[in-house]
Amino acid sequence: MKKEESGLVHLTCGALAGVFSDAVVHPIDTVRVRQQMIVDKTHKPTSATSTFFSILKKEGPTSLYKGFNAVLIGTVPGHALYFYGYEWSKHQLNKFTHMKDDNNPIIHFTSGNHLISSKFQKELLLMFLEVW
After folding, report:
1. 11-62, pLDDT tens digit by residue?
2. Residue 126 placed within a domain
3. What domain range includes position 40?
4. pTM for this structure?
5. Structural contact between residues 98 and 11, judged by C-beta atoms closer than 8 angstroms
6. What's the rounded Cα separation, in Å, for the pair 85 and 51?
7. What is the DSSP string of 15-79?
8. How many domains are there within the chain?
């Protein structure tokens, strides 16, 4: 982290990135869930496109964002902490290795890899809690 950048900047940017990425993906996820909810064996499977337009026609565009508030409860803190942790990890590795270059690919890879493995562990824990 550069001296002029505070942790609050990275937390905010991470939270906003999470909100925007989920805002783009949530309608796709809604269509996927609707298609999975069809349990009637006599019902003919439909394409994602036809399901999407059916939802728009019958329920309106806001229905594509049902449940979005619940998604944000996990997304905002998760992405904020991920961004902050990535930048903090880069800063610590730069200090440890005495590298002045902030664009070292090894530092980027190591910081990202560490956080991906911790995110994977969190997902395993959440899956266990859902089953339990």
Report:
1. 898 899 999 999 999 999 999 988 888 766 666 767 889 889 989 999 999 9
2. yes
3. 7-131
4. 0.68
5. no
6. 39
7. HHHHHHHHHHHHHHHHHHHHHHT---TTSPP--HHHHHHHHHHHH-GGGGGTTHHHHHHHHHHHH
8. 1
